[in-house]
Design brief:
Blueprint: H1 2-10, E1 23-31, E2 34-42, H2 49-53, H3 70-82, E3 89-93, H4 106-115, E4 121-125, E5 143-150, H5 154-161, H6 167-179, E6 183-190, H7 197-211, E7 217-222, H8 230-236, H9 245-258, E8 262-265, H10 283-296, H11 309-324
Parallel strand pairs: 2-3, 3-4, 4-5, 5-6, 6-7, 7-8
Antiparallel strand pairs: 1-2
The structure holds iron/sulfur cluster and zinc ion (ZN).
Length: 325
Amino acid sequence: MKEFEEVVKNFKKEIVKKVKKPRIWKEKDVLDGKVVNAFVLILRTKGCFWAKESGCSMCGYYRETYDAGYEEIKKQIDEAYMQYEGEEIVKIFTSGSFLDEREVPKELRDYIFKKFSKAKKIIVETRPEFVDALEEISSEIRLEVAMGLESANNKVLEYSINKGFTFEEWRKSAEKVISYGRELKVYILIKPPFLTEKDAIKDAIRSAEKVKGIATTISFNPVSIHGKTLVEYLWKKGLYSPPWLWSVVEVLKETRKIYDGYIKCDVIAGGKERGSHNCGKCDKDVLKAIKNFNFTQNVKEFDNLKCACQEEWKDLLEIEEFFKG
Ligand code: SF4
Ligand SMILES: [Zn+2]
């Protein structure tokens, strides 16, 4: 839908790109069932081609990018490597597609893999258009490919997210990732715009159902409000609110019943106005339970959560459906 693409694109008109340093941090993650150290590097590159053409309605990552050339990206990698202390997992993100040569030239891709060859696993992100590049990457590297799907519903992909591909196209690329012997992580969104809270929960669970058997990890992303996006515009007008944390818990509990792989959920801006939140009183406890679930994978983490706002959330699920007609 060309009109919707134009609407989403318009939010980026006044962004000024400044030279930025790579972002680097360390965190805990899970590797083969064990909690290990992970090194995260966000390279500043040209960024996602789709964000330039139009972009996804909730994504503000293009603000993190700028037109870095070959030498500059190489310098960023060297700078990052100085801080690397042998962490088992290395995550290299570009606010776009690591496998798109316009962002990371092939030689630099190989340079990165050589530098971080001690890592037990390297994780990169890409859109489905670029998975054929996997053919050129040594099979000795244990590589996990994280590929955003957001929703397996084509209507949601087109009219709510403006993802620029269909579920079938994503699925074809996902099969290729597996055929190249790589692990596949899929990002699924919780509460894209224009969906009721109840429909958003259902959409996330159905999407999980549709990727089982192919994705080794499902990473749920509850929507947070990024600046200069359609979602921010709707939020400011009172037409959108990020998902309740109770909805996130519901998605995790239900997905655990139907999916055998590893499930994770990083709640960006959790408990804040711009992120997934509840009443304010219980947010900390719920966020802690979600964090624990990421490590234990056990839904018992959610057993003792209780708050008066749970009733309010349940009411909202019903009321919104009633007004939908
Ligand atoms: S969500 Fe991913 S595919 Fe969509 S615009 Fe952002 S970086 Fe590009
Ligand atoms: Zn509460």
